[in-house]
Amino acid sequence: MENFIAANPLREGLSTQQAPEPCALVIFGATGDLTHRKLVPALYNLAHEGQLPQSFAIVGFARRPKTHDQFRAELRDAVAQFSRFQPINPAVWDALAQAIFYHQSEFADAKGYKTLDEFLRKLDTERGTAGNRLFYLATSPTEFIGIIEQLGVNGLARMDRAHGSPPRIIVEKPFGRSLPTAQELNHKLANVFRERQVFRIDHYLGKETVQNIVALRFGNEIFEPIWNQKYIDHVQITVAESLGVEDRGGYYDKSGALRDMVQNHLMQLLTLVAMEPPTVLEGESIHDEKVKVLRALRPIAPDHAQQFTVRGQYARGSMAGKPVPGYREEKNVAPDSRTETFVALKLFIDNWRWAGVPFYLRHGKRLPKGVAEIAIQFKAPPAVLFAAESPVPLQPNVLVLRIQPDEGIAIRMNAKVPGNTVNLQPVKMDFRYGGSFGARSPEAYERLLHDVILGDSTLFTRRDEVERSWQIIDAIIDGWNASPAPFPYESGTWGPAEADEFIQRDGREWRRL
Amino acid sequence: MPNRAQLETFAAGVETAVDVAQIERQLHELWQLAAESEKDPSQRQITRDCLFNFVVLCETDAGVAHATEVISSLTSRHPCRAIVLSAGSDSATSELSASISAHCHLAGTGQKQVCCEQIAIHATGQSVARLGSAVLPLLESDLPTIVWWQGSFLERIDLFRRLVAVANRVIYNTSAWDDALLQLAALARVITEYPRCGFADLSWTRSALWRQLAAEFFDEPHCRVELSRIRAVDIVHGSGPGAGVRALLYGSWFAAQLRWPVAEAQTKIHFSESNDRDATSVGIVSVAIKTNDATFSIRSNHGEDTASVTVDMPNACGLPRKRAFWRSDDASLLSQEFDRSTRDPVYERALAMAVAWLEERAR
Fold first, then answer.
1. Does a structural domain hold residue A498?
2. The pTM is what?
3. Does residue A339 sit in the same domain as residue A248?
4. In the beta sheet, which residues pair with residue B52?
């Protein structure tokens, strides 16, 4: 009988296979933008889908004085504005609101953590949260280490119960701003938490289409045999933004495009495209394969930075017909700033599969449109059959994984133009998620928060991934420090002309997006 | 060759009569015209999408109108080729008539419309027997076929057998059947005859949240031990059409999953019809699972689209709470079933238990 009830027999066949354990989620930085725009709307969406634990509590931890009810009212407005389920369902919201609390304290005040501990214990009794704790660092990164230390000193990182899960901590990006700072943060985390308790967020990994990279590669037999240096000419990974730095000038000017986007999001995309098949579709196995890719990435030595990278900075221009200021004219940006807002890299992965295949990474702000995609460009077919007949050279096949907007997959191939001549033209087979699966995908934060609650770290980054990635980025930054300022480019264009020359030197072109 | 105006009419969802033998050709020409329009940005941009064949069997004109409405709602999420069949076997004339139309939706952020085609075929008199032969050539090759039978397929078993041979799934709603309880045994026999086809009863799909909520009671290990101590399961249902079948399937599911023999199930599970304000309800009104130390309750809240969940036991697993019901209109239930691609052994076990229960009671 004991075996029979080891698993819940009533769960068989239901869409939700595992009910998450009861828990309390403490959000540090609860009055900030991230909490209002992303986290609480995502939690509401999970509640709407019935995916939150039966016994659950959200405790907002922040400096400003506020009552529970004031906090709830603010969050209700945020949910009404940012949830994907509109209009707000009063029954779902009311049930969630009863689980929302506010705890006022300075982040560095030990007393605030002691009273937090007492409050969480009270919730364990009153709301059945069973001593399970999740701590979400949604503050400015400068607060991370202080909060981690306070959690440790005040015993909040300990599991002091006979059953349940150890506390988990979720760390928002940026995870450090260099290898030493990332190592320091990892070290502080390791003093207080074990690695399996740490969830480093890279919200790109929560996107449905990013997860689909693994599904496409390993769920289809036709791709994997040609997914290597024998058939692939090069890979282009582009994350373009049409926005400027907006109100993040102060942060961005100390960070720049390479740290802000490439170290995390683009590197993660690269590892998913390049990794070997994991032995199982589970966190550790996937992390192991991703780290192998990062270890095989050929570092760009500082004195080679000019050869393998291009950086740019947007100047005045126009977006959608409206004039926009240059980067140096943005609020909180130094007028002589050398911070890059555009970066193009050429990377090589020195392993059997990818030897000699360049990976071109491109990211920039104030580019003509917001688009993110991975393009696998295959080698051109031998032209012997069609060279004489076709007025244009044969185009190589391209497989495009579009991440945003219009998530989908496209394949470019050559087809004969109808008629009496043997004239070939490229055609595109286009699969769009929006068309074929009309349902709106869960927001990235929904998926990630759900996984944290379940304790699944697959879509988070591991310590060694982060550190290896910073190692590569730091070497590039060292090289840049000894080189001229970024090339200016007009806002609303695809980056500096030098970026075009950069790839043209290899006989290739950036994709027109 | 159709012209641009005909394409616009088609894409606007207006039915165009067409000869049954010409359906495929007519559709091909319309889509070809749509593809040519892509070169002209001044024209409405439309493209076709199709992930499966969706064959709908309707018994009445109202059923056809309902099916069209449901298909229009479903195709934005589940693009398909819809083939709506209706039979008027009482008619003295023998005719097979057809029409085509499209359901179009704006896709993603762009201005391009994604369209799905609907083919309607109406048969009267002797032509009803030819419906099967009219459908088979219209099925898109290499795509799954899902059949939604609005009435009881047991009443048109010849046509059913013709279609089930090419179907991956058959969806029906026993709550809408006359004397459904009397037909469950025959249904269970048919299901076992076709092991390669999945069968789904919307009456069962509709109880998914009730099953989910009952399961959630026992996720925590210290609550799960209560499963072996259950002494009674009280299921109250409304008196509306199909409520009794839904309740029986639910109780049978509970017993089958806990591997209770029929005799034990009949001792522990009690069904009753609600006499109060919920009497007209077509579904389950409340469930109470009782052990020696605990009572686990789910109750639908009158006038609200919610259920209240309570646990009465020491060291309660979860607090009293409310859960919003999932939508239970046909489009929403079908959408849930489209997401499943295989047979549902849990449903089949529940159905087998329900049949055994009825047979035992009849003795």
1. yes
2. 0.80
3. yes
4. B80
Q: Which residues of B touch A14 (CB under 8 A)?
A: 208, 211-212, 215
C-alpha Rg value of chain A to the nearest Å: 25
Cross-chain CB nearest to B346 (options A12, A55, A89): A12
Asked if this assembly's ipTM is beyond 0.85, the reply is no
- Minimum CA–CA partner of A13 in chain B: B346
- Report the DSSP pairing between strands A358-364 and A342-348: antiparallel
Which residues, numbered 170 to 199 in chain B, qualify as contacts with chain A under a Cβ-Cβ cut-off of 8 Å?
none
**pLDDT digits over B239-284, tens only?**
888 889 999 999 999 999 999 999 999 999 999 998 776 556 778 9
Same domain, A77 and A226: no
Co-location of A140 and A240 in the same domain: no
A213 and A165 in a common domain? no
Q: CB B49 to CB A434 under 8 A?
A: no
Are B34 and B144 in a shared domain? yes
Kind and range of the H or E run holding A314? strand A309-319
Is residue B21 situated within a structural domain?
yes
With tokens 């890299």, the residue in question is A345
Provide the domain limits for residue A89: 20-172
The span from the CA of B316 to the CA of A499, in Å, is 63
B38 in a domain, yes or no? yes
**Any residues with CB less than 8 A from the CB of B163 and at least 6 apart, and which?**
B55, B57, B132, B135, B147, B170
Could you tell me which of A361, A316, A310 has the C-alpha nearest to residue A480?
A310
3-state secondary structure of A112: helix
Domain that holds residue B299: 208-335+344-362
Return the amino acid letter for A443: E
Judgement on whether residues A259 and A351 belong to the same structural domain of the protein: yes
With contacts defined as CB-CB under 8 Å, which chain B residues touch A161?
none
Q: What is the pLDDT of residues A470-510, one digit of tens each?
A: 999 999 999 999 888 999 999 999 999 999 999 999 999 99
Between CA B132 and CA B140, with CA B138 as vertex, the angle to 5 degrees is: 125
Residue type, B338: F
Residues B358 and B213 reside in one and the same domain:
yes
In sequence order, what are the beta bridge partners of B97?
A: B122
| Residue A407, CA atoms < 13 Å, CB-side half-sphere | 16
What are the tokens at A485? 């300022």
